[in-house]
């Protein structure tokens, strides 16, 4: 995998029960330092934790997390570093896709292990339209009769 012309970071962890928590915190701090004021940090943390849990489950000694940004989107990839790792279960992707800011996610197997990834939207949200009235009066006049 090659990523060019954008901010990137690579984080390496022992593949143990604490890796997911450490990776989530470090990934969030890294992306925060890139200046994404509107990033949903809990979503990023949850996505990275789930990615790392999937990589750790492959049974290797270490895992790595790779981060990149482009156009207000954050790519987070966890690599298991286990040659011949089997494709993961769909539950990981279902859980990732359920996060509010995850735009897409996926998994593939390469010679250096399984990669599980998520692409998160970090763009500012449009403000809610406060000029629109709400409630029964907003529906218009009663025309039934």
Q: Could you write a compact summary of the structure shown?
A:
With 145 residues, the chain is an alpha+beta fold.
Question: Notable features of this structure?
Answer:
145 residues, alpha+beta, 5-stranded antiparallel sheet, 3 helices
Give me the secondary-structure topology:
Elements lengths: L7 E7 L4 H15 L7 H16 L5 E9 L2 E7 L10 H8 L4 E9 L2 E9 L24
Antiparallel strand pairs: 1-2, 2-3, 3-5, 4-5
Helix pairs in contact: 1-2
Explain what you see:
The protein contains 3 helices and 5 strands. About 25% of the residues lie in helices and about 30% in strands. It is of the alpha+beta class and about 140 residues long. β2 (about 60-70) and β3 (about 75-80) form a beta hairpin. Mean pLDDT is about 85; it is low at about 130-145. Strands 1-2-3-5-4 form a 5-stranded antiparallel sheet, covered by helices on one side. It has helices at about 20-35, 40-55, 90-95, and strands at about 10-15, 60-70, 75-80, 100-110, 115-120.
